[in-house]
Write a structure and sequence with these properties.
Layout: H1 8-14, H2 27-30, E1 44-46, H3 51-64, E2 67-71, E3 86-90, E4 97-100, E5 105-109, H4 114-123, E6 126-127, H5 138-143, H6 151-154, E7 161-167, E8 173-176, H7 182-191, E9 197-204, E10 206-207, E11 211-219, H8 223-234, E12 241-249, E13 264-272, H9 276-287, E14 293-294, E15 297-299, E16 318-324, H10 329-339, E17 349-354, E18 376-382, H11 389-408, H12 429-442
Parallel strand pairs: 1-3, 2-3
Antiparallel strand pairs: 4-5, 5-9, 6-10, 7-8, 7-9, 11-13, 11-14, 11-15, 12-13, 12-17, 16-18, 17-18
């Protein structure tokens, strides 16, 4: 698409009030993504108040020869790259959230965070398929797939979506469902932000009064013992439990609870969708290892949003991930050799999430990402608080990737891909080709800039 930035006055006149361009007071703050490693310098920043203003931004961008990059929080912003030819369309004012307990449905604005809907659903005895952090945007997470603490029981979040309202490349407002715009509806569920600006989402809720969830925490000198036992345990774990094996090098900062501040640990995190007696029996083979701390308890659905204890303030982050066929003895050795004790790793967190269950089966009426062809997924993270740290973090991330490569087969989960990634690696060949055809029909000039391009 031709991209010639128009004069500042023309651009401002064509966009809704409050639009910022370079040099305006507030521009430098508004351009920041949640992941501070992303250096976003768009041609303009628009923050529309409703779907009509979203449509006005899209039409103005087309007329000006600019692209549109929708963004809620910017957790996965680094893959967007250069935005000098684009309007950064912040959806942060579209944060309404409604729950319908009787209909078991939730409806949220395109800029809503999980913290806008999870507590409301929990209050009426319902859960939603949120991720591991309450301040992640619902739309980006969900349309990219979405795996959370109920994933092995209920599958990918994208396949619980029942309707998507969006503004298309021609500036039209569309409601996509299984019956209306079925091709677009299929593509949006897993294909990410390639097809328009999402202004609202509707999705299923699931009855839940409580879950048995928590951490088992050990000194990281026991990493091999703990992760080996956890890996063996996952082979027989029921679909009602989703779990993570994780090593952490925690910084000595006030945000970390005193017993763990500045320590290196290995832990098992899990959420069991059942009662306490069942949960205790399930966790017994891991608990018999004798953890230093055991936080498992019956908790309301809302508590699961903070179970992983992700940072809720913007931070710089560099990460890597791999989809794995298995996590057996060879993979445990390789993983810990790359980032465990005595590896010299500077990564703050490295984890293996157990997949399978409903995640491993094509969901009825599924979208573009029907299931995940993997048994586990790794995710490793470093925080470059100073520029020189980035080199060491990058080397460590590459080391983890190389260690797990034999079990990975080069596949990706785009929710976890925080650097440029070939989107084809996230889909089967047939699904990816269908996505490309739908993208060519819906956005033939490439107006929309998604973090992972179809």
């Amino acid at each position: 698409m031709t991209t010639a930035t128009p004069p500042r006055s023309d651009l401002r006149d064509a966009l809704p009030p409050g639009t910022l361009v370079p040099g305006d007071p507030g521009y430098d703050q508004a351009r920041l993504a949640w992941n501070r490693i992303a250096d976003q310098n768009p041609a303009a920043i628009a923050t529309p108040a409703d779907a009509a203003e979203v449509a006005a931004v899209v039409r103005a961008a087309r007329a000006a020869g600019l692209r549109v990059a929708p963004q809620s929080t910017g957790h996965n912003a680094p893959p967007l790259g250069d935005l000098s030819d684009a309007i950064l369309l912040r959806t942060s004012r579209l944060r309404e959230a409604e729950v319908d307990a009787a209909g078991r449905r939730a409806r949220v604005g395109g800029g809503a965070w999980w913290d806008d809907v999870v507590p409301a659903a929990s209050a009426v005895g319902m859960s939603v398929l949120h991720g591991s952090s309450p301040d992640v945007g619902v739309a980006g997470y969900t349309l990219g797939g979405g795996i959370g603490w109920q994933a092995r029981r209920h599958g990918l979040a994208c396949n619980s979506v029942t309707a998507v309202e969006l503004v298309t490349a021609d500036g039209e407002r569309v409601r996509a469902t299984a019956d209306s715009e079925p091709d677009l509806f299929w593509a949006l569920r897993g294909g990410g932000g390639n097809f328009g600006v999402v202004t609202a989402l509707e999705f299923a809720m699931y009855p839940m009064q409580a879950a048995y969830a928590g951490w088992l925490i050990f000194d990281w000198s026991r990493s091999h013992e703990v992760l080996s036992r956890w890996a063996e345990w996952t082979l027989e774990a029921p679909e009602e439990v989703t779990s993570v094996g994780r090593i952490l090098q925690l910084p000595p900062i006030d945000l970390i609870p005193e017993p763990l501040r500045g320590r290196n640990i290995v832990c098992v995190e899990a959420a069991f969708l059942g009662d306490e007696a069942g949960g205790r029996a399930l966790m017994a083979p891991l608990r018999e290892l004798g953890p230093e701390m055991d936080t498992f308890a019956m908790v309301p659905p809302a508590a699961l949003a903070r179970l992983h204890m992700d940072p809720e303030a913007p931070v710089p982050g560099m990460s890597g991930h791999a989809m794995l066929d298995a996590f057996g003895p060879a993979e445990v050795d390789a993983f810990l050799g790359a980032c465990g004790p005595e590896s010299g790793s500077v990564l703050i967190s490295a984890e293996i999430r157990h997949l399978g269950g409903a995640l491993g089966r094509p969901a009825p009426g599924a979208g573009a990402l029907s299931h995940l062809d993997a048994g586990y997924v790794s995710f490793a993270l470093g925080m470059p608080m100073a520029p020189e740290m980035a080199i060491a973090i990058d080397a460590n991330l590459r080391r983890v990737d190389q260690a797990l490569a034999p079990s990975g087969r080069g596949r990706s989960l785009l929710n976890f891909a925080e650097s440029r990634t070939d989107a084809a690696t996230a889909f089967g060949a047939t699904a990816h080709e269908r996505l490309r055809r739908i993208r060519a029909q819906a956005d033939p000039t490439g107006l929309f800039r998604a973090n992972h391009r179809i």
